[in-house]
Amino acid sequence: MSALEWPHHLLTLDDWAELPETSEFHVEVVEGVLAVSPRPLVFHQRSIWRATYLLDEQLAPDFGAVNEAELLLNEAPPTVRVPDVLVAPASVLDENPARVRAEDALLVVEILPEGAKRTDQVTKHFEYADAGIEHYWIIDLDAPISMITYRLVDGDYENFGEHSGKVELDVAGMPVVLDLDALIAGRVQKL
Predict the structure, then answer these.
(1) In Å, how far are 59, 127, 146 from 170, measured between CA atoms?
(2) pLDDT tens sequence across 150-170
(3) Which residues on neighbouring strands pair with residue 38, listed in sequence order?
(4) How far apart are CA 178 and CA 164, in angstroms?
(5) pLDDT tens for residues 21-65?
(6) Residue 100 gets which letter from DSSP?
(7) Can you tell me whether residue 169 is helix, strand or coil?
(8) DSSP β-ladder status, 33-38 and 25-30
(9) Which long-range contacts (CB under 8 A, 24 or more apart) does 8-14 make?
(10) 3-class DSSP assignment, residue 183
């Protein structure tokens, strides 16, 4: 087992950028404090990839979906989250930034991990709303697979629906169909 060296102060963005990359852990920084958790298991990783693919294929060409990109919510002290899926303008993604700024994120999607559901349902819920991200979706892979969609209204997220099966939603005026069952089924079917 390896461990990251623990800094003896709150991290800055420069400290964050200098941390060694690791494939062993999922690493974020929250208000300058390093947050380390186990990497998602294969089942979860495959669902992340499929959700990203299904969204990206349906978005207008001026938007794109990426998985596990760094999202800068706050600079000082820094909070950098790594949502499972992030939708942003293609012009931003084409710049290949080290991290996407919260004001450029249109939608973040979290797929609930085993053992850390509270972080996505409570902590990130408030962080993403506070950062002004318009859409937040939470997918629960426990049977039956379900998703709660939130939209920012007057600075707070309002529940815009609880869904299962095949869902048609609006993202920036674009109709998007997401088959939740396809996230864990065999191979993704061509659209």
Answers:
(1) 10, 22, 17
(2) 999 999 999 999 999 999 999
(3) 25
(4) 10
(5) 766 777 777 887 777 777 777 788 899 999 999 999 999 999 999
(6) E
(7) strand
(8) antiparallel
(9) 10/77, 11/77, 11/78, 12/76, 12/77, 12/78, 13/72, 13/75, 13/78, 13/80
(10) helix
d(CA 78, CA 118): 21
For residue 71, what are the β-bridge partners? 81, 100
The alpha-carbon radius of gyration of the chain (Å, integer) is: 16
17 and 27 in contact (C-beta within 8 Å)?
Answer: no
| Burial per residue of 90-104, b for 16 or more beta-carbon CB atoms within 10 angstroms, e otherwise | eebbeeeeebbebeb
Give dist(CA 5, CA 167) in Å, integer.
44
Q: Is 171 helix (H, G, I), strand (E, B) or coil?
A: strand
- Please tell me the pTM assigned to this model: 0.86
